[in-house]
Amino acid sequence: MDQIRPSRGKARGRPQVETNQPGLSGGFPRLATNQQGFSQGVGGPRPRFSTQSLQTPITGVAMQRPPRQVQPRAAGAPQQRAPRPLGPRPAVSSDKSTARQDPMAGVQQITSGINTLGAGDTLVPIGRGAVRGRRQIEVEHFRTPRPESSLGKVGKQGTSGQPVKLLANYFPITSYTNWCLYQYRVDFNPEEDRIGTKRGLLGQHRERLGGYLFDGSMLFSGSRYDPSTFDLTSIRRQDDQKVVITVKFTNVIETGDYANIQVFNLLLRNCLRHLNLTLIGRNFYDPEAKIDMAHHKLQLWPGYETTIGRYEDNILLCAEISTKVMRQETVLDFLNQCAADRNRNKDWMINFKSGVVGTTVMTKYNNETYRIDDVDENSNPNSEFTKKDGSKMTYVQYYKEKWNLSIRGGRQPMLISKNKRSIRKFGVEDTLVYLVPELCIMTGITDAMRNNFTLMKDMAIHTRVNPKERMDRLTNFANRLLNTPDSVTELKRWNLTLSNRLVELTARTLPPEPILSRSQGYNGGEEADWTKHLRALPMFTSAIVKHWVILAPRDCCREVDAFAQTLSKAAQGMTFTLPRPIIVPMSDGRANTFLTHIEKVINETNPALILCVIPSARGDIYSLIKRKLCIDRAVPSQVVLLKNVQKNNLSVCTKIAIQINCKLGGAPWLVTIPKKGMMIIGFDVCHDSQRKSTSFGALVATMNDSHTSYFSCVEPHESGEELSVHFATGITKALMKYKAKNGTLPTSIIVYRDGVGEGQISYVHNTEVRLLRTACEQAYGPKSVPFAFVIVTKRISSRFFAPGLKGPQNPRPGTIIDTVVTDPTKYDFFLVSQHVRQGTVTPTHYHVIEDTLRLPPDIMQRLTFKLTHMYYNWSGTVRVPAPCQLAHKLAFLTGQTLRRAPQTGLDELLYFL
Fold first, then answer.
1. What is the mean predicted confidence (pLDDT) over 2-24?
2. DSSP 575-643
3. pLDDT value, residue 721
4. Could you tell me which residue, 462 or 815, shows the higher pLDDT?
5. Are the C-beta atoms of 816 and 829 separated by less than 8 Å?
6. Residue 723 contacts by C-beta under 8 Å, 6 or more apart in sequence?
7. Is 888 an annotated catalytic residue?
């Protein structure tokens, strides 16, 4: 049950499958935006509900919304306005007595809970499941200053390793006009929310405006209009309403401005629209090329992630293939499945809510995606809402008139989606979108699907694309872009020329790292896998185990005894002495039985480790055992499924023996890191699985020069709190523990920070780095200690291909890319640290945002590669440095299972492996 190695599926570089569930590769859903934050409207209006009325004082008169103040913008940075949900608003009376009779009054009950999603859902905390992986959403484009250590003669490039020619999934922009663009703000009176309607209204004046790009709020033109502010009058076709459009000059965008790249991306999005692709979320997908998996009731929609950016020597288009998982069932189908069990399960509605809340759905009528935040049992499609003009209608009538859709599902509770984008931009207004379950298709994969080996294997055939096929699909995409007439016209209009040849670059491959056992050295070879060596040689250090206990149901004790013998044999092969355990038979395998026996065994024998054999992979039993042994009583534990005990496989027993050794303080192998006195820290964040407002920041730090001894701590914090305060607390604890163990503080520190999106780098630099510096000054005094702060990013679109005799192949582990496709404003590099047998390997991106340690870039790159060898759950390299992977493992265990900070008595053991 305890993981014996990281999921190769995640670690390996297969194309991102957009599951759109928290914690999965899709992350939280996004409103449809282009890659640089430009809004893209899809479809028509959606029913909405304004929470503003709930916050109006109960006076019987609704307060008028104050005019929105427009903040001054930095030069070259276009203002970006978030689209608001459109359509009718449910009527909620200010009067309490009226609200009780209103069918929508139930919203007031959920709003108290849902409003907590508002203020707390800012860009804090940074971490897995927050707003990780999103593009820049701030108006001003922030760049952290590039550390001086990367500004020397060699810059940020390393020197070690063998040069190797690679291709990357980037296409050069071979020519573009150095045009000077003029930026205008466009306002509509009366105000118009639908971006498609805005485009139509503005398009009535194409002769006056000439060639332009319009993102929904800002207009970019190669011509300067005279006068600088002017009004245009259009007629809205659906109701013959006269609309006054005010166009106001705001800025000149020079070549080289960041906003210039934003305009390139807006132009690219316009070209993609001409390829008959469907915009879902922020990426385009091809429904014509969909793959039906009827026996699994799934469809896979292939698509593309694209962005244009400025890189070392050129402007490049990065293109990556993507896959959207579409389930062939509506939310109503899922509701009916849960309701069918209502006679036996009184909590069927709770099961429905838990299965829907937090997932993403796609509406049938306009392919818009929404994250579901709550379910309103007190409203249904026959409930009335108030339209903008004050008249009332039901949802059934609305969808019939607007979309010609008949709702037949009867009484079905309405789904609520909170438009967090508008909260972040403009405060709480127009933020609740009501959706009909019958009209919402479920997307992504559930935990049950993920645990279905057959389904995942069938899906991998289509999602794990090998380098040759990936290159072919990317080249076909570029040719399609360059051969579609409307797309060609758009590119010619702006004098933009795109190559259909992938970018070539020179990378370096580091030699295999020497690995030490207690008796001799070896390496992992070209595949960076040393499993065969590990089984036959003594582990680097072995823990001393006096006695340990196995708890198991009585009817399987014979099998458990045979399993214990195999485990001891496997451990002995690695010179790890595991004495015969005390096997405690239990009457059954229920959770309460385990808890009773655990308490009794600890009180009577105080074992070094408790191994629990559980009958099935039920999460509640696993969680209760872990909470008992990590929170109530600080005892290392191992949970094993009965089926694995029955198989009695030597390979599995070997991995369990290694885990037990690590959990008790041993180290299976060693990779030498020459620098003395260095403390290496990994940090990551995970949300509480039940209380979304609570997150856990996990910090793991090395405590010796061989980097085999660890200290770990977890700091819980609410979403509204600044994570940096708790981060600094963890750093201080780690420094004090290091001093207690070594008699002195470390002479240098390196922090590998996981779970940071591009838009949050400024936050991390301004707060976490500053707090780290302050914590160090408090411990060391004014001179402090040199440190480096490295942001680790796994969810990236970059892919690299090594030309070979048999066609394109994956680069070897240890391949460093620090030129051509890196960012000239950053101290960054890519590292391919793993070998994969299926699909295309995914590199990891490292960005050094602060460096007073001043290690040469070559040393920083080699150190990072060394650390990918030190994760003891897998006898091979992993995608990120070991302290980072350990921090993720600890944060995930705490957020998903423990939901409280573990006992400090375990903080020097890798009990969470």
1. 40
2. T---PPPEEEEES---HHHHHHHHHHHHHHH--S-EEEEESS--HHHHHHHHHIIIIIS---EEEEEHH
3. 52
4. 815
5. yes
6. 124, 125, 126, 127, 685, 695, 697, 717, 767, 768
7. yes
Catalytic residue among 376, 684, 688, 768: 684
- Asked whether the beta carbons of 51 and 429 are under 8 A apart, the reply is yes
* Cα–chain center distance at 531: 30
Tell me the residue type at 323: T
Identify which has the larger pLDDT, 384 or 75: 384
- Per the CB < 8 A criterion, the answer to whether 881 and 865 are in contact is no
N- to C-terminal Cα separation, the chain: 11
- Taking alpha carbons only, the member of 801, 876, 789, 782 closest to residue 841 is 801
374 is catalytic: no
Question: What are the b/e assignments for 496-530, b being 16+ CB within 10 Å?
Answer: bebbbebbebebbbbebbebebbeeebebeeebbb
Distance CA 42, CA 502 (A): 32
In 3D space, the residue among 215, 190, 331, 208 whose CA is nearest the CA of residue 267 turns out to be 215
Q: DSSP for 30-57?
A: --SB-TTS-B---SS---EE-GGGGGS-
CA gap 662, 609 in Å, rounded: 12
Bridge partners (DSSP) of residue 850 are 789
pLDDT at 450: 80
Contacts of 600 (CB under 8 A, 6+ apart): none
The one-letter amino acid at 448: A
Instruction: Evaluate if residue 18 carries a pLDDT over 70.
Output: no
Please state, as a whole number, how many other Cβ atoms lie within 10 Å of the Cβ of residue 617.
13
- Mean pLDDT computed over 731-736: 94
Exposure class string for 812-827: b at 16+ Cβ within 10 A, else e: bbbbbbbbbbbbeebb
Q: What percent of the chain has pLDDT over 70?
A: 81
- Integer Cα distance of 623 and 630 in angstroms: 10
- The answer to whether residues 840 and 470 touch, using CB atoms and an 8 Å cutoff, is yes
CB 295 within 8 A of CB 774: no
CA-closest candidate to residue 375, choices 354, 390, 389, 391: 354
Q: Is 684 annotated in the active site?
A: yes
Token pair for 134: 């999103």
Give the model's confidence band at 495: pLDDT under 50 very low, under 70 low, under 90 confident, else very high: confident
CA–CA separation, 41 and 44 (whole Å): 8
Which residue, 890, 800, 892, 788, is CA-closest to 845? 800
Per-residue model confidence (pLDDT) at position 524 = 87
Reply yes or no on whether the pLDDT at 50 is more than 60. no
Rg of the chain over CA atoms, in angstroms? 29
d(CA 619, CA 75): 53
| CA 366 to the chain's CA centroid | 26
Q: Do the beta carbons of residue 668 and residue 515 sit within 8 Å?
A: no
Of 312, 722, 758, 823, the active-site residue reads: 722
Distance CA 709, CA 746 (A): 14
Residue 719: its pLDDT value, please?
Answer: 62
**Residue closest to 123 by CA, chosen among 360, 417, 420, 373:** 420
Question: Is residue 903 exposed (0-12), middle (13-18) or buried (19+ Cβ within 10 Å)?
Answer: middle
> Which residue in the list 121, 257, 754, 851 is annotated as catalytic?
754
Q: How far is CA 84 from CA 398, 436, 604, in A?
A: 19, 19, 63
pLDDT value at residue 305 = 92
* pLDDT score of 423: 37
Both tokens of residue 92? Answer: 């909620």
Asked if the peptide bond before residue 467 counts as cis, ω within 30 degrees of 0, the response is: no
Question: pLDDT by residue (tens digit) across 541-598?
Answer: 999 998 999 999 999 889 999 999 999 999 998 999 999 999 999 998 888 999 999 9
Residues 115 and 51 sit within 8 Å (Cβ to Cβ)? yes
Convert the pLDDT of each residue in 813-870 to its tens digit.
999 999 999 999 899 999 999 999 889 999 999 999 999 999 999 999 999 999 999 9
3-state class of 279 per DSSP?
A: strand
Residue 553 near residue 589 (C-beta atoms within 8 A) = yes
Whether a cis peptide bond, with omega within 30° of 0, leads into 190 is yes
